[in-house]
């Protein structure tokens, strides 16, 4: 009796959903996030940003709505850094001409934050 040489195929591990935290003066998901698939999205005001929120959400990426009055991108990045976040931050709502200069400045001021200004979330 011949033995089968075929090996068992292991099914692929399910891909975890990307965790996205939207920070800003919004109460619900902005229209810009319509059509974003494969993500768990949580919306929170800047005032709710603390260690507990970051620990609970464990975001893969943070989208910050930066077009609002009193929403300083540098202050947001510093606050995230002070809370121990060293990850990806995408700021949207800024004029596109400001994005590159701001990203360069933030890289110097808060080196642990990967910041990029975007028109729409990806």
What does this structure look like?
With 122 residues, the protein is an alpha/beta fold. The protein has one domain: 3-Layer(aba) Sandwich (Rossmann fold). The chain is 25% helix and 22% strand. It has helices spanning 51-57, 73-82, 96-109; strands at 18-23, 39-44, 61-65, 88-92, 114-118. The chain has a five-stranded parallel sheet with strand order 2-1-3-4-5. α2 links the parallel β3 (61-65) and β4.
Keywords:
122 residues, alpha/beta, Rossmann fold, five-stranded parallel beta sheet, globular
The CATH topology, please? Rossmann fold
Secondary structure tally, helices: 3
Number of strands: 5
Major sheet strand order: 2-1-3-4-5
Mean pLDDT: 75
Secondary-structure-based class equals: alpha/beta
- Residue runs with pLDDT of under 50 for 5 or more positions: 1-7, 10-15
Overall geometric form? globular
| Helix and strand pattern | EEHEHEHE
Largest sheet: 5 strands, parallel
Q: What is the C-alpha radius of gyration, as a whole number of Å?
A: 19 Å
- Helix coverage percent of residues? 25-40%
**Strand proportion:** 15-25%
Q: Span between N and C termini?
A: 55 Å
CATH architecture: 3-Layer(aba) Sandwich
Summed up, the domain count is: 1
**Superfamily (CATH H level) name:** Response regulator
User: What is the CATH class name?
Assistant: Alpha Beta
């Amino acid at each position: 009796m011949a033995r089968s040489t075929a090996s068992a195929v292991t099914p692929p591990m399910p891909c975890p959903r990307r965790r996205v935290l939207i920070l800003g003066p919004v109460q619900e998901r902005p229209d810009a996030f319509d059509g974003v698939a494969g993500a768990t999205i949580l919306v929170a005001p800047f005032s709710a940003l603390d260690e507990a929120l970051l620990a609970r959400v464990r975001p893969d990426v943070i989208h910050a709505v930066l077009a609002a009055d009193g929403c300083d991108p540098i202050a947001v990045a510093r606050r995230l850094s002070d809370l121990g976040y060293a990850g990806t931050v995408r700021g949207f709502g800024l004029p596109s001409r400001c994005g590159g200069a701001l990203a360069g400045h933030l890289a110097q001021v808060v080196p642990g934050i990967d910041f990029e200004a975007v028109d729409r979330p990806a």
